[in-house]
Amino acid sequence: MAAAGITATGEQGWSSRTAFILAAVGAAVGLGNIWRFPTLAGENGGGAFVLVYIGFVVLLGLPLVLSEIFLGRAGGEDAIRSVRNVAERSNRSTSWKGLGALQITTGFLILSFYSVVAGWVINYVFVSGGDFLGSLMAADPFSVAFSGETQDQITGRMGDLFASPGKLILLHALFMGATIYIVASGVHNGIEKAATWLMPAFFVLLVIITIYGAFTGNFAEAVAFLFTPDFSKLTPMVLNDALGQALFSLSLAAGGLLTYGAYVGKDVNLAPTAGMIAMADTGVAILAGLMIFPIVFAVGLDPAGGPALIFQTLPVAFNAMPGGALVGFVFFILIFFAALTSSISLLEGPTAWVIDRFGIPRKMAALAVGFTAFMIGVTAALGYNVWADVRPLGFWNIFADTDILDTVDGFTGKIMLPFGALLVAVFVGWRADVNLVKAGSGLEGGMFVLWRFLVAWAAPIAVFLVLLFGLVPGLLAS
Ligand code: PHE
Pick from 337, 227, 223, 287: which is nearest to 37 by CA? Predict the structure, then answer.
């Protein structure tokens, strides 16, 4: 247990290696796995996307997770100062701190719409909770969820929610409020505590529900969809989406890991820790796919259904299961937990910076940052109703038909995350002092050489090519 870290302002950091792993896995596992991954896999034709995604996670994501945690711990402060510190110790330009600034901005923007989507989850916690209560009152706890409704009525609930700006904003406020509360409570007393309670519970239920889905849904078709690559579907845009999703899901390039890394004790070996984070995150994404697509096919929904997909499929499935009222209720609570342990990492990045930069108390900083992100998120919520016709980047052909939420999501995912990752790769691979990098990584011999090769060569070249072919043709065509 002697692995306790400490934050720049002298606050207690993670109390142990396990605590750090849970917090980091909590940051990684979230709506990215359960909502964004199935949405993108469905929109991009399944197998080929999944294969490329896994390729990016292994060859690029995993090495970068280690790079970012290393940078954070070696720098020991907020994301911006940490990078500056490492640049200074490596006799490099302190302008590299711009890398930290880009990441924090990215995380802040992601938080703004992430909270809106998490609000949808809360809606379903309430709805399914009501159904569960109803089934209890009917003295029939094993009845189905959403009782008595047809499939169209169930899937239609999503449209009803989207049509109500007041509801969307209120739910978004609830979620952001919970996020602010935890971050304001501190690294040890807030973030760590939340992760150590919520993550284990989440994993147990996820496995149970997946096994259940395997027996009830159209499992074979889902497996074929997810794991049979159709390479004719592999366009540069699909590669760009897969790269963005790998980064998003691993919490890379958005300030989260840089910031969490700073709270890790000096005696924690980072390499196996990075491996565990990447494995847990990818495992959950695949499980989520195996849980959602059998249902999609069983009930004949379109896999390319977009952001509403999981909110329409899962209730339909729960509706058909014995005990579905209970399972559905618990399940949405667990998605909510997963989202919360991620959103706190999104808020912690900019908050830590504000604390360091302006010297204000943590509570004030968390509130100020969280409130600002909330206000930006409100525009995303309105993009489903009163501003449904607004296309913020409509002049650019890849965003031509993209509403506000999808635009912020797409811009951060397709552009900002890859750029942030590119900078980390170049900085750690080429500019940071090699001895510092080697000692911090905990890797030796061939493993160190391999890691450094992936960070210095494979990652920058791959990201550069993806950005070039994914974005430039679109820009030229606009
Ligand atoms: N990885 C989180 C998820 O998959 C989202 C996230 C991105 C969190 C970036 C922190 C930083 O839901």
Answer: 287
Q: In this structure, are residues 82 and 75 in contact, taking their beta carbons and an 8 Å threshold? A: yes
In angstroms, what is the span from residue 32 Cα to ligand 1's centroid? 6
Q: How far is CA 282 from the centre of its chain?
A: 11
The whole-number pLDDT of residue 429 equals 98
What is the CB < 6 Å shell around ligand 1?
Answer: 27-28, 30-33, 107, 110, 248-249, 251, 254, 256, 342, 345-346
Q: Is residue 191 part of a domain?
A: yes
Question: How many structural domains comprise the chain?
Answer: 1
* Closest protein CA for atom 7 of ligand 1: 251
User: Exposed/middle/buried for 65, CB within 10 Å: 0-12, 13-18, 19+?
Assistant: buried
Q: How far is the CA of 29 from the centre of ligand 1 (A)?
A: 7
In a domain, 7, yes or no: no
**Per the domain annotation, does 320 fall within a domain?**
yes
Let me know if residue 465 belongs to a domain. Answer: yes
pLDDT digits (tens, 9 = 90+) for 224-276: 999 999 999 899 989 999 999 999 999 999 999 999 999 999 999 999 999 99
Phi, psi torsion values for 3, nearest 5 degrees: -105, 20
d(CA 377, CA 262): 28
How many angstroms does the Cα of residue 341 sit away from the middle of ligand 1?
Answer: 9
CA distance 270 to 441: 6
Closest protein CA for atom 4 of ligand 1? 32
User: Which residue is associated with the tokens 């579905």?
Assistant: 324
The domain in which residue 136 lies consists of 17-476
Q: The domain that contains 341 carries what CATH number?
A: 1.20.1740
Ligand 1, pocket-test mutation among 175, 182, 345, 416, most atoms within 8 A of CB: 345
Give me the pLDDT at residue 146, please: 57
CA nearest ligand 1 atom 11, residue: 251
Q: Return the bridge partners of 6, or none.
A: 12
